[in-house]
């Protein structure tokens, strides 16, 4: 009798604990989904703006309200690996004309960004795999906009403008 | 004194109500995100398997566990409009060779599905804008796998196999 009683109490407490975990897990998930998330970056493609092992805060509101603009640094799902994320700068939006030839090429080639897509490039042009290799990226793959650098502490604050001069000017 | 008291009680109840709404809203959001969602389809591109105004249930587990297979009907975000969803069948996975020429073309053309992408086609080949027009779609755009037709009631149940014979066989 005592054993059955204790079992029911342990079961009750366990279910109660699981219930709270699910509840607060869902609330935390929604906070990360709709407010923002912390991202630890790795790789050289955004130097000098973001270096490897920097921690940034990526806010979600701009993405949900479709307020991503040229010059923003975004976190997006990689088009080639659904489990990986990429961190690049938005160079062009849909309809923009992107110059895809190198600065030393004789013949200039251009490409238009299709509807619903964006053109992403890293700030470290020499060491970045981005839209110059894999083409425009669907807007729906963007997760959030990087708005604040959190780590290292001596670099805390807003992020710099693009050092590359590649952002498409307003079309004439 | 009375008004201040009543104001505090109304405020307390309102905040409590808002708290419950946020709490259960988050739990509902996570249920739709991780379990499945109901989708009302429109358009002729999946006839006869799914007709316009059918309601289907799209489960999320396969997408999160990367268990989407050839022949599955999936709901995905449209590559051209991040607010629209498309409902198509998976014809090929990454690495598959897709025949992109028509049945009446003399010269057969092929295309390989890149890593991290899928090739989607509607069952109604004559009236479907799909990968044949916009190319392979990144796997990360897939939202869920349609597993059950719910409406109309006389068509309730599992969905039919592809009527088109376009699904890529296991490569030799």
UniProtKB/TrEMBL annotation, chain A:
One Pfam family assigned to this protein is Peptidase_S26
The molecule here is called Mitochondrial inner membrane protease subunit
The cross-references to InterPro entries, in alphabetical order and at most eight, read: LexA/Signal_pep-like_sf, Mito_IMP1_subunit, Pept_S26A_signal_pept_1, Peptidase_S26
Q: Mind telling me which Gene3D superfamilies this protein's record contains? A: Umud Fragment, subunit A (2.10.109.10)
Gene Ontology biological-process annotations: protein processing involved in protein targeting to mitochondrion; signal peptide processing
Family recorded in the similarity comment: Belongs to the peptidase S26 family. IMP1 subfamily.
**Under which EC number(s) is this enzyme classified?**
3.4.21.-
Q: Which GO terms describe its molecular function?
A: serine-type endopeptidase activity
- Which keywords label this protein? Hydrolase, Membrane, Mitochondrion, Mitochondrion inner membrane, Protease
Where are the active-site residues found? 45, 88
- Assembly and oligomerization: Heterodimer of 2 subunits, IMMPL1 and IMMPL2.
TrEMBL record, chain B:
Top-rank taxon, per record: Eukaryota
**Similarity section:** Belongs to the peptidase S26 family. IMP1 subfamily.
Q: Which residues of this protein are catalytic?
A: 45, 88
Annotated GO biological processes are:
protein processing involved in protein targeting to mitochondrion; signal peptide processing
* GO annotations of cellular component type: mitochondrial inner membrane peptidase complex
Class of this enzyme = hydrolase
Secreted as a keyword of this entry, yes or no, is no
State if Protease is listed as a keyword.
Answer: yes
**Single Gene Ontology MF annotation:** serine-type endopeptidase activity
- State what protein this is by name: Mitochondrial inner membrane protease subunit
The UniProt entry, under SUPFAM superfamilies, shows:
LexA/Signal peptidase
Alphabetical UniProt keywords? Hydrolase, Membrane, Mitochondrion, Mitochondrion inner membrane, Protease
């Amino acid at each position: 009798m005592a054993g059955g009683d204790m079992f029911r109490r342990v079961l009750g407490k366990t279910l109660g604990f699981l219930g709270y975990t699910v509840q607060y897990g869902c609330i935390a998930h929604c906070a990360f989904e709709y407010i923002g998330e912390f991202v630890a970056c790795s790789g050289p493609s955004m130097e000098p703006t973001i270096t490897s092992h920097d921690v940034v805060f990526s806010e979600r509101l701009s993405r949900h309200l479709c307020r991503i603009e040229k010059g923003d640094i975004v976190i997006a799902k990689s088009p080639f690996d659904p489990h990986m994320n990429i961190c690049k700068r938005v160079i062009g939006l849909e309809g923009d004309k992107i110059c895809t030839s190198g600065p030393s090429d004789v013949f200039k080639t251009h490409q238009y960004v299709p509807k619903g897509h964006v053109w992403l490039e890293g700030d470290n042009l020499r060491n970045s795999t981005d839209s110059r290799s894999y083409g425009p990226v669907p807007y729906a793959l963007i997760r959030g906009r990087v708005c604040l650098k959190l780590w290292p502490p001596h670099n805390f604050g807003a992020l710099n403008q693009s050092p590359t001069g590649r952002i498409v000017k307003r079309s004439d």
